[in-house]
Amino acid sequence: MTTSRVPDLIDALVAALQASGGLTGVKVVDGPVVTDSAAEEWVFVGYDGDPEGDFTAATAQQEWAGLGAKKKNEDITVTCAVLVQRGSTDVRACRVRTYEVLAAVESVLRADPSLGFPTPTVCAVTEHAFHPEQTPDGIQGRLPFTVTCTTRI
Predict the structure, then answer these.
(1) 115 near 150, Cβ under 8 Å?
(2) Which domain holds residue 129?
(3) Which of 64, 118, 120, 139 is the most buried (most CB within 10 A)?
(4) What does the pLDDT read at residue 1?
Protein backbone atom coordinates (compact mmCIF):
# COMPACT_ATOMS: atom_id res chain seq x y z
CA MET A 1 0.00 0.00 0.00
CA THR A 2 1.23 3.48 -0.85
CA THR A 3 0.43 6.69 0.98
CA SER A 4 0.56 8.78 -2.22
CA ARG A 5 1.23 8.40 -5.93
CA VAL A 6 3.07 11.75 -6.12
CA PRO A 7 6.64 10.32 -6.25
CA ASP A 8 5.74 7.62 -8.79
CA LEU A 9 3.65 10.03 -10.86
CA ILE A 10 6.51 12.51 -11.19
CA ASP A 11 8.87 9.66 -12.18
CA ALA A 12 6.38 8.38 -14.78
CA LEU A 13 5.81 11.85 -16.20
CA VAL A 14 9.55 12.55 -16.53
CA ALA A 15 10.14 9.15 -18.18
CA ALA A 16 7.23 9.54 -20.63
CA LEU A 17 8.32 13.02 -21.68
CA GLN A 18 11.98 12.02 -22.03
CA ALA A 19 10.94 9.12 -24.28
CA SER A 20 8.69 11.26 -26.49
CA GLY A 21 9.79 11.74 -30.08
CA GLY A 22 7.82 14.99 -30.11
CA LEU A 23 10.25 16.47 -27.59
CA THR A 24 13.46 15.61 -29.42
CA GLY A 25 16.01 18.33 -28.68
CA VAL A 26 14.08 19.55 -25.63
CA LYS A 27 15.79 18.96 -22.28
CA VAL A 28 13.27 17.28 -19.94
CA VAL A 29 14.33 17.40 -16.28
CA ASP A 30 13.00 16.47 -12.86
CA GLY A 31 12.66 19.64 -10.81
CA PRO A 32 15.01 22.60 -10.78
CA VAL A 33 18.52 21.72 -11.89
CA VAL A 34 21.93 23.26 -11.56
CA THR A 35 23.63 22.83 -14.90
CA ASP A 36 25.93 24.45 -17.37
CA SER A 37 23.84 23.07 -20.25
CA ALA A 38 23.55 25.29 -23.30
CA ALA A 39 20.07 23.91 -24.02
CA GLU A 40 17.61 26.53 -25.23
CA GLU A 41 14.42 24.51 -24.74
CA TRP A 42 13.38 22.86 -21.50
CA VAL A 43 10.49 21.07 -19.83
CA PHE A 44 10.67 21.08 -16.04
CA VAL A 45 8.58 18.57 -14.10
CA GLY A 46 8.05 19.60 -10.49
CA TYR A 47 9.23 23.19 -11.00
CA ASP A 48 7.61 26.32 -12.47
CA GLY A 49 10.80 27.62 -14.13
CA ASP A 50 10.92 30.71 -11.90
CA PRO A 51 14.10 30.91 -9.80
CA GLU A 52 12.25 33.40 -7.56
CA GLY A 53 9.21 31.10 -7.20
CA ASP A 54 8.06 29.03 -4.24
CA PHE A 55 9.42 25.69 -5.58
CA THR A 56 6.24 23.70 -4.92
CA ALA A 57 6.65 20.52 -6.98
CA ALA A 58 3.24 18.95 -6.34
CA THR A 59 0.16 19.08 -4.16
CA ALA A 60 -2.35 16.35 -3.41
CA GLN A 61 -5.73 15.90 -1.81
CA GLN A 62 -7.19 12.59 -0.72
CA GLU A 63 -10.55 11.27 0.37
CA TRP A 64 -11.94 7.84 1.06
CA ALA A 65 -13.28 6.09 -2.05
CA GLY A 66 -16.19 4.61 -0.10
CA LEU A 67 -17.18 3.11 3.21
CA GLY A 68 -15.10 0.05 4.02
CA ALA A 69 -13.31 0.25 0.67
CA LYS A 70 -9.91 0.84 2.28
CA LYS A 71 -9.04 2.77 -0.87
CA LYS A 72 -8.59 6.50 -1.32
CA ASN A 73 -9.10 8.81 -4.27
CA GLU A 74 -6.15 11.13 -4.76
CA ASP A 75 -6.15 14.33 -6.80
CA ILE A 76 -2.60 15.41 -7.63
CA THR A 77 -1.40 18.63 -9.20
CA VAL A 78 2.17 18.63 -10.51
CA THR A 79 3.77 21.99 -11.25
CA CYS A 80 5.68 22.02 -14.55
CA ALA A 81 7.06 24.55 -17.00
CA VAL A 82 8.23 24.99 -20.56
CA LEU A 83 11.17 27.35 -21.00
CA VAL A 84 12.27 28.47 -24.46
CA GLN A 85 15.25 30.80 -24.75
CA ARG A 86 16.21 32.67 -27.89
CA GLY A 87 19.15 34.88 -28.76
CA SER A 88 16.84 37.41 -30.40
CA THR A 89 14.01 39.73 -29.39
CA ASP A 90 11.38 38.04 -31.61
CA VAL A 91 8.55 37.61 -29.10
CA ARG A 92 6.15 35.99 -31.56
CA ALA A 93 8.58 33.26 -32.67
CA CYS A 94 9.41 32.50 -29.05
CA ARG A 95 5.72 32.36 -28.05
CA VAL A 96 4.86 30.06 -30.97
CA ARG A 97 7.72 27.67 -30.14
CA THR A 98 6.87 27.68 -26.43
CA TYR A 99 3.31 26.59 -27.23
CA GLU A 100 4.59 23.96 -29.68
CA VAL A 101 6.57 22.38 -26.84
CA LEU A 102 3.49 22.49 -24.58
CA ALA A 103 1.48 20.80 -27.34
CA ALA A 104 4.07 17.99 -27.48
CA VAL A 105 3.75 17.52 -23.71
CA GLU A 106 -0.02 17.41 -24.00
CA SER A 107 0.22 14.85 -26.82
CA VAL A 108 2.11 12.50 -24.50
CA LEU A 109 -0.69 12.72 -21.93
CA ARG A 110 -3.43 12.33 -24.53
CA ALA A 111 -1.72 9.19 -25.86
CA ASP A 112 -1.68 7.60 -22.38
CA PRO A 113 -3.69 9.60 -19.82
CA SER A 114 -3.02 6.96 -17.16
CA LEU A 115 0.78 7.13 -17.58
CA GLY A 116 0.73 3.37 -17.05
CA PHE A 117 -1.04 3.45 -13.67
CA PRO A 118 -4.09 1.24 -13.05
CA THR A 119 -7.61 2.54 -13.60
CA PRO A 120 -9.13 4.82 -12.58
CA THR A 121 -6.18 7.12 -13.33
CA VAL A 122 -6.48 10.12 -15.64
CA CYS A 123 -3.85 12.84 -16.12
CA ALA A 124 -4.06 15.99 -18.23
CA VAL A 125 -2.60 19.45 -18.69
CA THR A 126 -5.18 21.64 -16.97
CA GLU A 127 -3.78 25.14 -16.57
CA HIS A 128 -1.02 27.30 -18.05
CA ALA A 129 0.20 30.90 -18.20
CA PHE A 130 2.63 32.39 -20.72
CA HIS A 131 5.34 34.84 -19.55
CA PRO A 132 7.46 36.53 -22.25
CA GLU A 133 10.61 37.76 -20.54
CA GLN A 134 13.33 39.89 -22.12
CA THR A 135 16.73 38.92 -20.73
CA PRO A 136 20.25 40.18 -21.51
CA ASP A 137 20.54 37.13 -23.81
CA GLY A 138 17.27 37.77 -25.68
CA ILE A 139 13.65 36.77 -25.34
CA GLN A 140 12.65 33.90 -23.09
CA GLY A 141 9.24 32.26 -23.04
CA ARG A 142 8.33 30.77 -19.66
CA LEU A 143 5.12 28.81 -19.57
CA PRO A 144 4.28 27.31 -16.18
CA PHE A 145 1.58 24.65 -16.45
CA THR A 146 -0.05 22.06 -14.25
CA VAL A 147 -0.63 18.40 -14.82
CA THR A 148 -3.62 17.24 -12.82
CA CYS A 149 -4.04 13.56 -12.11
CA THR A 150 -6.97 11.76 -10.51
CA THR A 151 -6.08 8.30 -9.26
CA ARG A 152 -6.90 5.72 -6.61
CA ILE A 153 -4.53 4.37 -3.98
Answers:
(1) no
(2) 6-32+39-152
(3) 139
(4) 63
What region does 37 belong to: left with phi over 0, alpha with psi -120 to 50, or beta?
beta
Q: How many residues does the chain have?
A: 153
Which pTM value belongs to this model? 0.92
In a domain, 91, yes or no: yes
Q: By the 8 A CB rule, do 74 and 4 touch?
A: yes
CB 124 within 8 A of CB 116: no
Q: What is the CATH number of the domain that holds 66?
A: 3.30.70.1700
Of residues 16 and 137, the one with the higher pLDDT is: 16
DSSP H helices in the chain: 6-19, 91-111
**Sign of the four-CA dihedral 93, 24, 40, 130:** positive
* Chain center to CA of 10: 9
Helix (H, G, I), strand (E, B) or coil at 56: coil
**Does the residue 20 lie in any domain?**
yes
Q: Does residue 1 lie within any of the structural domains?
A: no
pLDDT in tens, 94-117: 999 999 999 999 999 999 999 999
Residue 50 has pLDDT above 80, yes or no: yes
- Residue 34's pLDDT is 73
pLDDT at residue 80, rounded to an integer: 98
**89 inside domain:** yes
